[in-house]
C-alpha cells in the first residue's frame, strides 16, 4: 500500500497543497500550526471518512472557506492477480452539508465507501486514550482495523447501527404509550444475531493483535512492556438475555446490551495497565497497538498499511526511538510529522516535506 500523491484544499490549517511522495519514509516538517498533524489527518480521512482527531466534517472546513477537498492517488496489491492496482479518490464536504466522493471516477454521496480502500495505521498524541480512555475509543480502533480488511464486518456494523437506531426510537415511545412488543422481539433477534457475529470477529482480530504484541515485545522493540496482554471477554448475548432486561430498557428508553457496549482491557499481570503505567509507557503501549494492528492488516491482506506517525518525539527518549526506528523498514510507506526529522534517530533518511 503506497500513497503516491495527496492534494487538499480548505482543510483545517491547509489552504491549498499538493505533494507527490517518492520515498518510503517521508518526514512532514514545520513549526507549530504549520499543518503537520492536519496533513496526516487528511490521509487518515481518505482511509476512514472521518478525522482521527474526533472533529466533525463541518469543523474540518477552513475558516471562511465554503468546502474542503481531500484527494489522493495510491496503489495497492491485488490479492487475486498478484499485481498492483492504481486508484484515485477524492472527497468533498461543503458548509451546507453536501458530501461528494469520487473513487476511480464513480461518484458517491457517503464517505463510508472510503473504508477498505487506502489502509492506514495511525498514531498521534490522542492515541494514549487507547490506554486510559473510554471503551468507545478502543471499539473505534478495533472496528476500523477489521472493517478496513473485511467488508462483511463493515456491513454487520452498519446493520447493527440501523437496528439500534430503530429500537431506541421505539423504546423512547414507551413514555407516551404502549410499545409494540412484537417489533421489539424482532429487533432483539437481530441484535443478538449481529452482536454474536461482531463479537466473533473482534475476538479473532484481537487474538492476532495480541500475538503480534508478544512478538514485538520479544524482539526488544517494546521490552519495557513485557507482561502486557489483551483481555477480551464480552458478556454472552442471546434473545433471552435481552428480553430479560426489557423492563429496564423500557424504563431507560435505551438498549442496554449489545456490541456497542463491550471493551477490551489492557493488562500488565493481573492489573489494568492504565492503573500502573507512566505517560511514557502509555505512549509506548499506544505505539505497540499501532504496530500490532498493522501486523493484523498484513496477515489478512498480505500488505502493510501506510503508517502515519505524529508526536513521536514527546515523552519518548532516544533509546526508545532508536528501537522503534528499525520497525519502519518493514513498511512500504511511512509518513512522520516532526519538528526536525534529524532528531528521530535510528539512521532514518526520509524525504522531507516542509510546511
* Number of helices in the DSSP assignment: 10
* Biggest β-sheet: strands ordered side by side in the sheet: 2-1-4-5-6-7
Shape category: globular
> Terminal Cα separation, in Å?
24 Å
Order of helices and strands: EEEHHEEEEEHHHHEHHEEHEHEE
* Percent strand: 15-25%
Mean pLDDT: 90
Total number of beta strands: 14
Classify the secondary structure makeup into a structural class.
alpha/beta
Helix content: 25-40%
Main sheet makeup: 6 strands, antiparallel
* CA gyration radius, whole angstroms: 22 Å
**Uncertain stretches:** none
Written account of the structure:
The mean pLDDT is 90. The protein is built from 10 helices and 14 strands. The strands form 3 sheets. A 6-stranded antiparallel sheet has the order 2-1-4-5-6-7. A 5-stranded parallel sheet has the order 8-12-13-3-14. With 355 residues, it is an alpha/beta fold. A hairpin with a 2-residue loop joins strand 10 and strand 11 (271-272). The protein is globular and about 65 Å long. 39% of the residues lie in helices and 23% in strands. The protein has helices spanning 36-48, 57-60, 129-132, 135-147, 151-172, 181-218, 239-243, 246-252, 279-301, 318-325; strands spanning 2-11, 14-20, 25-29, 67-77, 84-94, 99-103, 106-108, 120-123, 228-231, 265-268, 271-272, 306-310, 334-338, 351-354.
Please describe the topology of this protein.
Elements: E1 2-11, E2 14-20, E3 25-29, H1 36-48, H2 57-60, E4 67-77, E5 84-94, E6 99-103, E7 106-108, E8 120-123, H3 129-132, H4 135-147, H5 151-172, H6 181-218, E9 228-231, H7 239-243, H8 246-252, E10 265-268, E11 271-272, H9 279-301, E12 306-310, H10 318-325, E13 334-338, E14 351-354
Parallel strand pairs: 3-13, 3-14, 8-12, 12-13
Antiparallel strand pairs: 1-2, 1-4, 4-5, 5-6, 6-7, 9-10, 10-11
Helix pairs in contact: 4-6, 5-6, 6-9
